[in-house]
Design a protein that fits this description.
By secondary structure, the chain is mainly alpha-helical. It has 6 helices and 3 strands; from the N terminus they run H-H-H-E-H-H-E-E-H.
Length: 136
């Protein structure tokens, strides 16, 4: 059988179409840059843990805006190495800064991250730390 005979048969085959007519025109938008997407992913990984979210809530609500691991261990009922591990992840994610004072390290939310973390932690109550946040 020739190719002409095959294509002229109406055996339920549809003709080949280069484009899907139901899809519509191509999108005219630019995706998030790879650099920004990687930074955002790093930040999201930093917050993707209940303990780290608790730590961030303490740092956001702390009167001086900072806390030491020695302050966090009794609040979270966790051992110092566990809290230090989570602090390292938060620092590496760029969410928290670390400042050494004597033998202790003090941590605070980075100023440029504060607004987004307030919104993430407190939701529509992001006006700042208050007693109804469940803590300090």
């Amino acid at each position: 059988m020739s190719a002409d005979q095959v294509t002229r048969r109406s055996a339920g085959f549809l003709p080949f179409v280069d484009e899907d007519p139901t899809c519509g025109p191509p999108l005219e938008v630019d995706p998030l840059s790879r650099e920004l997407a990687e930074a955002l992913a790093r930040n999201l990984k930093g917050t993707a843990d209940p303990t780290r979210l608790q730590i961030l809530s303490v740092l956001l609500a702390a009167p001086e805006g900072e806390a030491c691991v020695c302050d966090l261990t009794p609040l979270l009922e966790l051992a110092q190495p566990t809290v230090s591990y989570h602090m390292k992840i938060l620092v590496d994610a760029g969410l928290v800064s670390r400042r050494k004072r004597g033998t202790w390290a003090w941590y605070s939310v980075r100023p440029e991250q504060r607004a987004v973390l307030d919104a993430l932690i407190w939701g529509d109550r992001a006006a700042g730390p208050r007693a109804d946040h469940g803590g300090a």
